[in-house]
Structures are given as structure tokens and as C-alpha cells.
Amino acid sequence: MSEAISRYPSLSHWGAYTALVRDGRVIGCEPFAHDQAPSPLIHTMPDMVHSPLRIARPSVRASWLRHRGAPELRGVDGYVEVDWDTALALVHDELQRVRAQHGPSAIFGGSYGWSSAGRLHHARTLTHRFLYAGGGCVDQSGNYSWGAAQFLLPHIIGTYAPVTGRITDWNSVVGHTRLLIAFGGIPLRNTQIASGGAGDHSAPGWLARARQAGMRAVVVSPTRADAPAALAAEWIPIRPNTDAAMMLGMAHTLLAEDRHDRDFLARCCNGFEQYADYLLGRADGQPKDAAWAERICGVPADTIRALARDAAGARTLLSCSWSLQRGHRGEQPYWGSVALAALLGQIGLPGGGFAFGHGSMNGAGNPRPDLPAPEMRAGRNPAGASIPVARLTDMLLQPGEPYEFNGRTGIYPDIRLVYWAGGNPFHHHQDLNRLMRAWARPETIIVHEPWWTPTARRADIVLPATTTLERNDIGGSSRDRYLLAMRQAVAPVGRSRNDFDIYRELAARGGFELAYTEGRDEMTWIRHIYEQMRPAWEAAQLTLPAFDEFWERGHVALPPPARDFVLFEQFREDPAGHPLKTRSGRLELHSAAIAEFGYDDCPPHPAWLPPVEWLGAERAARWPLHLVTCQPADRLHSQLDPAPATRANQVAGREAVLLHPDDAAERGIAQGDVVRLFNDRGACLGGAQLSADLLRGVVVMPTGAWFDPQDDALERHGNPNVLTVDVGTSRLAQGPSALSALVQVERWQGDAPAVRAFEPPALQPEASGAPR
Ligand SMILES: Nc1nc2c(c(=O)[nH]1)N[C@H]1C(S)=C(S)[C@@H](COP(=O)(O)OP(=O)(O)OC[C@H]3O[C@@H](n4cnc5c(=O)[nH]c(N)nc54)[C@H](O)[C@@H]3O)O[C@H]1N2
Ligand SMILES: Nc1nc2c(c(=O)[nH]1)N[C@H]1C(S)=C(S)[C@@H](COP(=O)(O)OP(=O)(O)OC[C@H]3O[C@@H](n4cnc5c(=O)[nH]c(N)nc54)[C@H](O)[C@@H]3O)O[C@H]1N2
Ligand SMILES: [Mo]
């Protein structure tokens, strides 16, 4: 045993760190020296890398290996471990067979998921690269994060850049904003995370500076927990999914009291008249006044009116969390907030206007020069086929059926083979019992995974992938000021291989290795990705250090930006000279393009449209609690769930479910009880955690507990996606409606079934001789 500890810089979606290695094992992690607020999640890495749930060898589902059959046994069957050569031959033959018999539109390679932070070894990108180079596949458009916003915003503001990161800088907010109204709040648990990894967790520092500058903050949310102490915010409780009504109530107040900015509306907006008609009730006889809004959202009319007046009287920023648009009709609160900001007339002024995602991800509003982040390109999909990201189950269950999406009609393809690497649909998708039925339809399912996740154990061929610390990579987020070197710290665990190399070998078997690799290996790719950023640096008159210097030092810091970024500053100054990329070139309060679609579920102006499930729905008589499935504080989605530090936060051995003490008392539920959450889609168990910081009638259960169904009637571990609804936000965006779900909760009587989520499936070593 040697005593020496070696140190390797690395990066995860939850932050940059140095891995400490002794005797070939990761024994600890130290945060990146320049991180102001490192996330404790980095300390789970040693347990995760050396987890008993690592997949040691390529594994093939027993019934599939025997006779390519019994798809209904996915999730039940055991696995036969095979050598790499056997596994790669099986994958190659299946891809060839399906391509030859059915073409690329029978292969589903959307592979949605966050994968790992490094850009070269990003599993989803590599899956696309491999399948595109091999002839194409069916892909997924959009994402679960801001799926409704991505397709709505271009119609109304000409871009969706404000959800990818380009919002008014925090510098401008601290300097100028006097009132911040945060719909959905700014929960700091979410700012631990940045897609592509954060060098610096900047959000807590910005909140502290804003508070010091005397900014008033108002958080509108079903839970006080969304108002961080660092902000000393006032809390306005609101019924879930009703923000659009509250925004209309505020807008009506501005109009009725003549507090709207006529000059801004005339210069910069299109369709004010039609929107005003709706607000004043000229068409339907119902003014959308504060009293009307109160009946829907539960916020007192006086509060709505006072907030509207305050907003008109001060430099005000309206910020919406991404969660607002992850519910049914999620287009409406986003359009509603843009329209309300337009009435206030401060769009394009320092610290004013609208913004998204301040509490959704690290680095939203973090000042950063407009330089590219490192990127690995997937190339072009020659099949040109894709479905809206969250229509996964519909596609599998309804081949040949039409669907509508953003003004066009598509036809669901007939999928024979599913290829997934870097995502966990049995985490991320809604109505998992319905997905289970759909999952039995394809002939073959292939998954790469480091761990025996719920998706891995529902695949036919499972290929073990390395984790970040077992390979070299480069990372950095478009919201952060660091480029980070990621150096291999330990040898691959078990027989795992890099996703990059698995696909390289398969591409070689398919005769397209060069198209896939472009002749580069790991280190030449990393250099290439780095050098691709150099022209942009030079154009900005900046010097990107030599690659070797970067690799040696472990990071490069981007300089601070020359000036504050203010969203739509130039457009405001000169709307004709800097038009938006909308139909009218202006901000659209009424959209002719959307009107042409003729969708009754997304009318051409912001509106209140009752979601399928909310506390005001008829269904609430039977299912009286609104389930909010927020992001988990102690992991990223389903990642890190098996780590002992994460499991220590469970209640009664399951995911915690937050209940108001009065809602709990009515049901005879006490703190720490096992409870059953149920509706007509399914049921799951959870551990009761009582909290008075909740609106009554709302229960909160974070996502991410590894899916552990006893059968389709009971999930044992606390995965709330057995309860959520699997319908698109509207025909326009077809985004996920995860945050619109009604449930009932009851105390579990007697012994609760044991959780089996962290037991790997039965594994049988390959029988001597050839398998088959
Ligand atoms: N009810 C409800 N559901 C939701 C949401 C919600 O708010 N409510 N939020 C949605 C949102 S916004 C999102 S983004 C999705 C997230 O959904 P996902 O992105 O699917 O969730 P993750 O758990 O991050 O899945 C990533 C998977 O990649 C694997 N992985 C990590 N590194 C590697 C690697 O190097 N190679 C390979 N092959 N695999 C790797 C991990 O083990 C993990 O299984 O969930 C969505 N689901
Ligand atoms: N720790 C951690 N952080 C994460 C992630 C993670 O898995 N773990 N995932 C990351 C990803 S992929 C994404 S996309 C972002 C998601 O970012 P968000 O979508 O903003 O995150 P959520 O936690 O789903 O929701 C934020 C808050 O919105 C409130 N809320 C829910 N519904 C409503 C509503 O109808 N009205 C109002 N006013 N409030 C509502 C909830 O109380 C919740 O706490 O988070 C990122 N950050
Ligand atoms: Mo997300």
C-alpha cells in the first residue's frame, strides 16, 4: 500500500473539483479553488465511481439472448454477462438488420439526457454522432427543461436565447433593479447545477449583493422554500399552474389605472389592441381583473393590485423559473410575463423587463463575455427525422399516427430499435406505467450506462460505460467563466469502456470509422475542441493560452465582459434598426403566426387556459392535492441517488414528500410515516415530511428516486413520475406537462414493502461455449 495521493482536476454538472486518488481508487474530492460556493454533491464521487451498482461487463437480457423475445420481461429478466466481442457483434448485427429491413426511421436515437459534463465524452452527443454517421435515426426536438419556452418564445420575442442563458446581467440587476418579482422563486438548491459544469457557483453571491443594494424581492410560489434567506424575499403563496391568471390580473390593473407605458407599446410592440380586448373582456364579457384572478390563483386581489402598482412605480424585473412552463399550457405564463413586462415598458432598460431561470440553473445572469463554450458536434442527421422530445411514449404506442407540433403535422415512426446512452427515461418521463407498456413494443433496446439504473435494467443489451474520472476530457458551461481540464484519475472500473470507444469500434464494424472519429483519438479531440474556440477569442482581441499550458494548469478563466449585457437594449433604442426576428419585427402581444395555426390550446395572445389538472379542476374533488415534482437538492435528477450521502436524506427509507401539517392531520399522517401517493395513473410510496411553509392543498416530492415498481399498481421508492400526466403543453410546443398532477395521499398501513432499487439484476456469467 502506498501512501502517495495523486490529484486530478475534473468537472461535473455540479461543479469543478480535484479528485484525490490513492492506490488506483478515488478517495476524496476538493472543490475548485475559484468556486465561491462549491456544492457538497462533489463529495459523492468516490462512492459513485466505486459503487457496487457499477456494470462490470457487457450484459444481455436472458430471454433476448435465447430467442430475441419476451419484451414484456424487460425489468424482470436477469442478464447473461458476455465478452466485448460478443456484445459488439450483437449490437452491430441488430443495427444492420433493422437498417436493412426498416430503414433509419425504425431506429430511435434521441437518447435524451444529461449524460456527464465533459464535452468530448458526452454520451448523448456521441450517440447522435454515431447513428448519424451510420445512416441516421429518429431524434428528439427540444428538451424537458424549457420545452414549451423554446418553441413559444421565437414567435413572440424572435429567439429563445433568454432560456439558454442570455438574460440581463446580474451587474445590471444589482445596479438598477429596485423590485424583483420572481415567479417560481430562486431556490438555491437548483443553482448547484449547470449544464456542462460550473467553475464558480455565482448565484448565492449575486443574491447577497442584490440584497445589500436594497433590492426588494417578492417570490410568488406554492412554497416559501423558493425564497432563499439570502434574498430576504416576501412570499406570496400561489396555487400551482395559475401564474398566467395572476399576471393577467396585474396587467388588467395597469391598464385600468392607466399605468401602462403607451410609448413603449406603440414603439416596440405588436398586437396591444387585441391583448387589451382580452384583458378588458371585450370579446368574452369577462374582464381579467384582479378579483377574477384571485378566484383562480388564490392570491388576494388587493395583493395583485398593489404589486402591479409597485412594479409600475419602480425599476422592476419579472423573472420566471423554468418550472412555470413545465406544466400543462405552460406557454401562457411565459407569454403572460413578457406581455406584463411590455406594459411596464422597461424591457431593454438596465435591470428592467423580463428574465427566466434565475433560480433554475447556476450562472443565469452571470456576466460573461460572448465567447463560445467548448463543444463536440454531432453532425447532421441524414434521416432528418425527429419527434417533440416529450412525445416518447406516444411515438412508441402510436406508430403511423399523426400529431401536431408548432404549425406542422408529423407522423409517428414505427420504432423497432431503441438506442440510449446518457439519459434515464425511467427517471425523466411522465406517467411511467404508460412508458412501461410502450417500452415493451420495440424489438431491441440497447443502453450504455455506468450503473444499473432503471433504464439499464430494462434494456436487452447493456454496455458498461466509464465515468468521467476514468477518461480525459474538457468542459465548461456557456453560463460560466471557466474552461476546465478533466484529467483521467483512475483506470476504467470493471470492463467498462468509454462511450467514444464503444461507438468507434461499432463504426469500424459498420465501415464508417473515419466519418465518426474524423481521424482523431481522445487527446487530439480534446486539443481540437480547445482550438476551435481560438478564432472567437482572437476576434474579441483576447489570447487563449496554448493548449499545453491549459492542460497543465487545469483551467482558463475568461475575462469579465467589457460592459453589462441588457436584454433587448439595442432593440429598445432603435426598434426599426434592430428588429426582433418575429413576424412583425416587434414584441408580439398578439401573434399572427400563432393565429394561423388555429390552435385552441394556444390562442394568439396570452390567456388563462385551465390546465388538465389543477386545484380548480373538477378532478380535484377526487384527487384534492396538487403534486409539485421539483428538482432534488441532493442529486442531479436520478444521478447520485444510490450514494450513501444522498440516501441519508430519505425519510422512512424512501423519497421525502412534503405535506402541510393540516393536510397531514386530516389524513392521520405524522412526520416520518410511510405514505402512499396515488391517482388513476399509479401510486408510489414516500416518507412524510411536514412543513408549514407550503400552501395547503400542495404536496412537494422531488424527482430522481430510482424507479422501483413492485408492479404497475405500486412504486416502492418514491418516484413521482408514476403519478404525472403525459400530455403535451399544447399543440404548439408539445412540452412536458410534468408539473400538472393531482393526487391523493394516505397513510400506509402495516409493513411497507422493501425498496429494491439498489439491488443489481440477477447476473449469470456466460455459459461455457458459444452463447445462444
Ligand atoms: N416529474 C418531473 N419529471 C421531470 C422533471 C420535473 O421537473 N418533474 N424535470 C425534467 C428535466 S428538466 C430533465 S432535464 C430530465 C432529466 O432527465 P435525465 O437527463 O434523463 O436524468 P439523469 O438522471 O441526469 O440521466 C442521465 C443518465 O446518464 C447516465 N450517465 C452519466 N454519465 C454517463 C456516461 O459517461 N455515459 C453514459 N452512457 N451514461 C452516463 C447517468 O447514470 C444517468 O442514468 O428530467 C425531467 N423529468
Ligand atoms: N439540485 C439540483 N438542481 C437542478 C437540477 C437537479 O436535478 N438537482 N436539475 C437542473 C435542471 S435539468 C433544470 S431544467 C432546472 C429546472 O429548474 P426549475 O424548473 O426552475 O426547477 P424546479 O425545482 O422544477 O422548480 C422550481 C420551483 O418552482 C416552483 N413551482 C412549481 N410549479 C409552480 C407554479 O405553477 N407556479 C409557481 N409560481 N411556482 C411553481 C416549485 O415550488 C419549485 O421549487 O434545475 C436544474 N437544477
Ligand atoms: Mo432540465
UniProtKB/TrEMBL annotation:
One of its GO terms (molecular function) is trimethylamine-N-oxide reductase (cytochrome c) activity. Keywords: Metal-binding, Molybdenum, Oxidoreductase, Periplasm. Its EC number is 1.7.2.3. GO terms for cellular component: outer membrane-bounded periplasmic space. Residues 10-50 form the Molybdopterin oxidoreductase N-terminal domain. Residues 54-508 form the Molybdopterin oxidoreductase domain. InterPro entries: Asp_de-COase-like_dom_sf, CT_DMSOR/BSOR/TMAOR, Molybdopterin_N, MoPterin_dinucl-bd_dom, Mopterin_OxRdtase, Mopterin_OxRdtase_prok_CS, Prok_Mopterin_Oxidored. SUPFAM superfamilies: ADC-like, Formate dehydrogenase/DMSO reductase, domains 1-3. Residues 625-738 form the Molybdopterin dinucleotide-binding domain. Its cofactor is Mo-bis(molybdopterin guanine dinucleotide). Pfam families: Molybdopterin (PF00384), Molybdopterin_N (PF18364), Molydop_binding (PF01568). GO terms for biological process: anaerobic respiration. Belongs to the prokaryotic molybdopterin-containing oxidoreductase family. This is Dimethyl sulfoxide/trimethylamine N-oxide reductase. The gene is dmsA.
